[in-house]
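Friendly challenge for the regulars: who can give me the structure tokens for this chain first? No prize, just bragging rights.
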Amino acid sequence: MEDRVSAPETIWRIDGPFAILTFNRPEARNAMTWAMYDALVAACEQVDADPQIRLFILRGAGGRAFASGTDISQFQAFREPKDAIDYEKKISAVLGRLERVVKPTIAQIEGVAAGAGCGIAITCDLRVATPESTIGIPIARTLGNCASTGTFGRLVDLVGPARAKEMLFTGRLVPAAEATAIGLFNRVVSKEAIEQEVLTLAREIAANAPLTIRATKEMTRRILAARRPTESDADLVEMCYMSGDFKEGVAAFLGKRRPQWTGS
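First reply, four minutes later:
Bragging rights claimed.
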């Protein structure tokens, strides 16, 4: 199992009662590849299987990003609706597995958490960030695709529908002070202090009754899951990912230019 977690693009470490997964593509602001998503799922499995692990920490290498989303170059292979629907199913499955980890999870956010990186961060139980950190899903101004029901539901759970829609409509990245005020970040500390702050918080949690924490986490998940819609989002995924706008968004992103939207 550990071989599936430790790879060139991820670093896996167990430090006493803590498991730490580092997304390790700093040259690409830790943009997520398929292998990195697979490593995240494998890490979740190992965390749940090891009774000595009390808490799971996720972070990004390099100090510039937690994760900046899915590696956009991978979208060039999309040709038919099934490609888009399968992608969103994969992301939903990965985030669903992270959500169901029975140990508490902390996202240690330095720099940007964008797109799927935001999705990973808001799926974690707690988020600790630096003053320079930003978070959001900027797809309305970058790619022209759509967030999955699960990701949008988690965002609504944290900030409410009006703020969630404002974030998605504008595509802006929310700065740390505002993110804390609206409930996206739990704590903001200096870049120099964040690692120690996360470990201090982890130790405080790990010292408490494991079953109480597990029950609290699962009860919260069940309450929030009961409020989320069960209706399929496949029609919306297909509409966005099969559009000319999405093709333009991917080409513009990779070409480092502004996309020209047509609504078709």
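The beta strands are 10-15, 18-23, 55-60, 65-67, 105-109, 112-114, 126-129, 134-136, 174-175, 187-188. The chain is about 50% helix and 15% strand. Your move, everyone else.
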